[in-house]
Amino acid sequence: MLEVLNSIPIDLINPQFELIVNIWEKLSASILASATVIIVFMILREIIDKYIALTCSLIFALATANWTISSQTLWQHGLSEFLLALAIYLVIKSYENNNIKTIMYLGLVSGLFLFNRPPDAILLLPILYYIVSFKSFKVIANYLSFLMLAALPFIVYNYYFFNSLFGGYSRNLGLFILSSQFIFNYIGLLISPNRGLLIYSPILLFSLYGYYILIKNKNYSHRTFFLIMGISIAMMMLMYSLFHTWYGGYCFGPRFLTDILPALAIFLGISLDGLQHNVKGSALILVVSLISLCLAWSIFVQLVGAFYYPNGSWDSDPDIDTHRERLWDWKDTQIMRSFHAGFVSPVNFINKFIFIINDKKKLRIDASVDSTV
Known about the structure:
Elements: H1 2-6, H2 15-47, H3 50-62, H4 65-70, H5 76-97, H6 100-116, H7 125-133, H8 137-162, H9 181-191, H10 197-200, H11 207-216, H12 223-241, H13 261-278, H14 281-307, H15 334-341, H16 347-358, H17 367-372
Helix pairs in contact: 2-3, 2-5, 2-13, 3-13, 5-6, 6-8, 7-12, 9-12, 11-13
């Protein structure tokens, strides 16, 4: 097998090389998304009941865009999720041991997080608050030093090729529009039938109750950190609501909000843990029923995104970029059109992979091969 793979030239327009790239890209994205689920579980295990933590981690894995966006291909969102979850875990661990090495690691992760997807920088606000709360020059200096250490290669690269701090992202500043339309865009990020977070993953509605618990319970561990995280999430959503393409272009669901999912999963865990202890009797039956319905729909939607989309060509027929009114069309939703269009067959993909491994003679890069692949 290695002999066959080694015979494939590194050529972006070569079909065999493109297939190998797609295979490894999918595998890498899946591993990264799975690792994020593990870290979310490790976080939740530190702050709530371990069985609720496990349940919530599985919900995060199967009922959110961590599956349909982050695990499908190497968007920046998957790495943003991973780095955010890792940063939160490091904050919680440093609460316990005040280890300066943990602060250094946190600086490295923050630097990578910042330059992986610069708009996500807002989500660093609770981490910056945490670092400043030490009121220690040594802690702040170590954090910022290692943040800059991680950021320096990206800064050099961006200035060399783009002559700006954030590279190509600097051009996106012209795509922000200050108008009252942002109100509808903000609402759309939450409940648009074709991009709304609470439409694609209604189970996350219970994250709001988790945040309410944090507001009411002043003795909750890491309370201030998570409260600021909630504020930073609201601010990030506001930023995207001002963006010209707030809906994320051609994608399945609320792509831009994928990055906040680890934090929402933590709020969801706090919510489920609170409901377990505070709701009794007939009210508990009602709550469990509601959670079950929301969870069933959320998993169904992610199944559609993973195994049916892009069948149905909802994004392109007609073009969503020129017919944005379709984002609010309840009669022709992306979810149901993709579902009714049928399952995406993996047969062609598998056949191409087998072709590469078994048919060495056809690996010669010539016009006749290119025309048949």
